[in-house]
Amino acid sequence: MNIKITKYYYGDIPEEKSAGSTYQSAQDATTWPLWEIFIRSKQGLDHKHVGSLHAADAAMAMENARDVYTRRQEGVSIWVVESKYITASNPEEAGELYEPAVDKIYRHPTFYILPDEVNYM
Amino acid sequence: MGIIMENRLTNFILSIADTTLILAQRNAEWCGHGPILEQDIAITNISLDLLGQSRNFYQYAAQIIGNNATEDSLAYLRTEREFKNLLLVEQPNGDWGQTILRQYLFSQYQYLLFEQLQNNADEQLAAICTKALKEIKYHVRWSSEWVVRLGDGTAESKERMLNAIDELWSYTGEMFIPAEYEKEMGIDFNALQNNWSAKVKALFTEATLSVPENIYMQSGGKQGIHTEHLGLILTELQYVQRAYPNSQW
Amino acid sequence: MSIQNFEQHFQAQIDNEIKIEPKDWMPEAYRKTNIRQISQHAHSEIVGMLPEGNWISRAPSLKRKAILIAKAQDEAGHGLYLYSAAETLGMSRDEMIADLHSGKAKYSSIFNYPTLSWADVGAIGWLVDGAAIMNQVMLTRTSYGPYARAMVRICKEESFHQRQGFESLLVLSKGTAEQKAMCQDAINRWWWPSLMMFGPKDTESTNSDQSMKWKIKRKTNDELRQNFVDMIAEQIKVLGMKLPDNKLNWNEQRKHYDFGEINWDEFWAVVKGNGPCNKQRLAARRKAHEEGRWVREAAMAYTEKKKSKSSLEAA
Q1: What secondary structure letter does DSSP report for B34?
Q2: Are C142 and C216 in contact (CB under 8 A)?
Q3: End-to-end alpha-carbon separation of chain A, Å?
Q4: Looking at the whole model, is its pTM more than 0.80?
């Protein structure tokens, strides 16, 4: 694939125009692991994924999450989980995982037509 | 309220306002320079909390003083000798260890002091302190965790914490020596000191650090006799107000 | 599926406004462009804390001090959201920061200009954040999901930044003669650099534009710049100040403001590291990182100690 991107925008300044050189940083003893943060915005709602951050331990991840993601009273409850413990489904398997559900419309309440007298079922 | 009582209350409120302002100013020096982004945000948050507290106290003091005093005239137009903040909070940030130790030593003291003040006879003072207690509780928790992490982390971090204790300990004594204006405020300074010492000792033990003994204690901050650091802090803090007097910002 | 099929499927998703998510197949160049752009955006937020941070200790009132601290703190948060988004593409934050510190990765050149008076803080809020918002609003619709979501969050929080900047200048513009002069001087110095923030002119390249096709970007530099000029040219009337451009004129035919030529030599000089504060800004970031090393190391060492202790107790 031969795509050459030659037009540059704000926040996207070409590297070949830059002055420095590359150096590789290794993950070392100073690297804090990544945590995923979930916030319940108010009682009665689910926790929702809001992003991630780095922390040395769970207590710190919790406090960081409070400082980073609830500065404007966005939450009443926080979950933190180290990112490496999350198992994600593979998008290439999306077909076998989710498409079988497409023709099972009988799982949805609107499939059943009831007389008008039966309200709010 | 008698004039003497009123002066005492004003001075007491100003001393808390000054202490929280100066520590907010010091902590804000970390903004953009923290050891990692997440902690940059954390220390800045504490700075903002303290600044908010100081504004509440200045506003209350201004209200008592009257005479067109404002939070800004009190923070920006008083001199070094008029500032009554604790010596502890004007000490330089040093490294991260020194900053979080200073925060812990102060927050633990502030928590115990405000716990007493939330029942103070002066209702407005009590209300301001009650509101601040939630913030302070968090500052204690956050800074305690850091003291333990660094005390019991690496050999280097332990050494840095020992240096920080050495650097700061002699400024903790004056917290428990009542100034003239604190004497009638209904504060039990003995209980304050005993509780503080017990808490600090327990935390230091967890952090594998020890509490220094027989250290000569500095004092004077509450009476306006400061270390040389305060003059420089105020030079920066007050610069614009003094360079352009009588302006709105 | 063959590579061509993957590519077709990928482009079809984008054409149909379906977001690309971290584990989806994507062309390598799409991944790289996003990493570069998102990380540079993150670096800009972080380095951007420095010029404003320069005035935190001297803010002229307690209220202004609180606002400024809160704003700088927001920027740290925004940098964090953006590093998080870039990390989903497989580059660690440490690596991105190493690239910033080596000079390989760039950040917005505007932050290499000095803040010389209190009015600069207002001018940055109004002009620099104003220019950034034009770009950021567009980016809430960018094709890469985590980037778009980070931008939504950022835009929500940014709205106070520009307003506080303008309001702070408004107070100066109604103040003493010295304050007015301070205000005009700041606008004079920040106007052209803020126009440069939108990047080179569209005509500078005639090649096909992959970033637009991939909907990473949805408006061109010149479109955004024109929107910005049109907005500011009106707002400055409220301040009673002047923009330092004698070619600035309303063009009835175009229904836009015409404006003068940007000094592109200056633009590239600053990008290449010759701005007034390039060295100082990078040195400050490197110093913070280096001096934080023992802190980060000790925190991890403590965590490891606690883990091995609790596994001993469990055994």
Answers
A1: -
A2: yes
A3: 55
A4: yes
Which chain A residue shows the shortest CA-CA distance from B36?
A54
C contacts of A9 (beta carbons < 8 Å): 37, 135, 198-199, 211, 217, 221
Instruction: With H, G, I as helix, E, B as strand and everything else as coil, classify residue A53.
Output: strand
Distance from CA of C171 to the nearest CA of B (A): 6
- Domains of chain B are 2-243 (1.20.1260.10)
Q: Quick check: A59 and B145 CB within 8 A?
A: yes
> Is B195 in a helix, a strand, or coil?
helix
Contacts of C100 in chain A (CB under 8 A): none
In Å, how far from its chain's centre is CA C25? 28
Residue-range domain boundaries for chain A: 26-89
pLDDT class for A71, splitting at 50, 70, 90?
Answer: confident
Mean pLDDT by 10-residue block, N- to C-terminus, for chain C (315 residues)? 84 94 91 94 96 98 97 96 94 95 92 97 96 91 95 89 94 98 98 94 67 84 94 97 97 97 93 91 97 97 91 74
Report d(CA C248, CA C243) in Å as an integer.
8
Shortest Cα–Cα distance, C186 to chain A (Å): 22
A26-89: which CATH topology? Ubiquitin-like (UB roll) (3.10.20)
Task: Provide φ and ψ at C231, rounded to 5°.
Answer: -70, -50
CA nearest to C155, candidates C167, C166, C140, C141: C140
Which chain C residue lies closest to A7 (C-alpha atoms)? Answer: C205
DSSP C156-221: HHHHHHHHHHHHHHHHHHTS-HHHHHHHHHHHHHHHHHHHHTT-S-GGG--S--HHHHTTS--S-H
Is B222 within 8 Å of chain C by CB?
A: no
What's the complex ipTM?
0.97
Task: Output the CA–CA distances (angstroms, integers) from residue C294 to A31, B43, B155, C283, in the order listed.
Answer: 11, 17, 10, 18
Selected residue of A32, A62, A63, A73 to mutate for chain B interface (largest B Cβ count, 10 A): A63
Rounded to the nearest angstrom, the minimum Cα separation between C127 and chain B is 19
Radius of gyration of chain B from Cα atoms? 18
Tokens 């037509």 found at: A113
C-alpha distances out from residue B204 to B105, B152, B189, B198, C83, Å = 11, 10, 22, 10, 36
* 3-class secondary-structure state, position A52: strand
CA-nearest residue to C167 within chain B is B249
